[in-house]
Amino acid sequence: MARIELQNVTKRYGGTRALKDLSLTVEDGEFFVLLGRTGAGKTTTLRIMAGLEKPDEGNVYISDTDVTGWSVAERDVALVLQQYSLYPRLSVRGNLEFPLRPKVRNMNAEEIARRVDRAAKTLQITHLLDRKVERLSGGEMQRVSIGRAIVRDPRVFLMDEPLSALDAKLRESLRVELKKLHQDLGATFLFVTHDQVEAMSMGDKIGVLRSGRLVQVGTPSEIYERPLNTFVARSVGTPPMNLIEGRLQGDSARVSDFSLPVSSPANLEQKVTFGVRPENLIIESGAPAEARVFDIEDQGVIKILALDMGDTRLHATVPAGTRIDRDEVVRFGWKPERVLSFDPETGRDLAV
């Protein structure tokens, strides 16, 4: 196990800065998820941690040792990629043994067999050990790929969107297995993804990356409940947080032609972007605001309503048994204590 840290790392490709003065710490034994859209700099961050890329500025530390100039092998980290990186002509056993064969490891046959058997049992692929890789399913190949990392007993696991090529059901299954693997091994994991569901369901901590900069780091509940700005607010949650332009008037919010209660900084006559999660909108007769139901998405346990309030599109969740129709005009309010207030110019949370 190990603590891994980036300090003030900048990386350029030609005239483009992929990372901009990035500082990031993954604690010993932590499952840290780096969440960002395509082009945010996630893979570059991982490659610099692994030693596949050198930063133009800044340093990389593992267990408080500066490893910026070290090779991949010297850093003793394991990479698990979206592509399975397996040898198709070898069996599963052969693929698992391969990282342990180099002479520099000086490992005897008994130790190799012990590590392979342990990894196979952990990943529930013992029955596949003598099968050729070309006969495996996508999920089985990804398990073998993870097994190749486990047998090395590395200090850090670095995973670059390892589930993105799998179908939805298999992704869900392997999310659970990876979390259990992390608990069993007690190792340090950095998991890179663009999928907010993976981030929220797997991470002890989440770092939200935007254009090469770390926007916010926190637990899944912190990221969801108290996003630092509107970018983070829209990055997590399905549907994402409603952002509504209005004006703060003491303990009330003026939105469109309606006035709703809020618990916000007491700045009179201040323009504000109000943020409220769909589950915190309340559909009930006599509520202070009005909207038309544009669409209804039935998800079994709940329904997701798309509401039009003038030019503003909102989303609200209601119990599946709620009787409501498209084009129906409904009254709604919100939970005042759950409403956030953002600066409409900078997007920053006004309470921070």
What does this structure look like?
The protein has 352 residues and is of the alpha+beta class. The relative contact order is 0.12. The mean pLDDT is 91. The two termini are 35 Å apart. Helices cover 24% and strands 35% of the residues. Helix 4 crosses helix 5. The longest helix has 18 residues, at 168-185. The chain contains 9 helices and 20 strands. The chain has helices at residues 42-50, 72-75, 92-97, 109-123, 138-150, 168-185, 196-202, 220-225, 230-235, and strands at residues 4-13, 16-26, 31-36, 57-62, 65-66, 77-81, 156-160, 188-193, 205-210, 213-218, 242-249, 252-255, 258-261, 270-276, 281-283, 289-298, 302-309, 312-319, 329-334, 340-342. The strands form 4 sheets. Strands 6-7-8-3-9-10 form a 6-stranded mixed beta sheet, sandwiched between helices. A 5-stranded antiparallel beta sheet has the order 13-12-11-14-20. Strands 15-19-16-17-18 form a 5-stranded antiparallel beta sheet, with no helix packed on it. The radius of gyration is 24 Å and the shape is elongated.
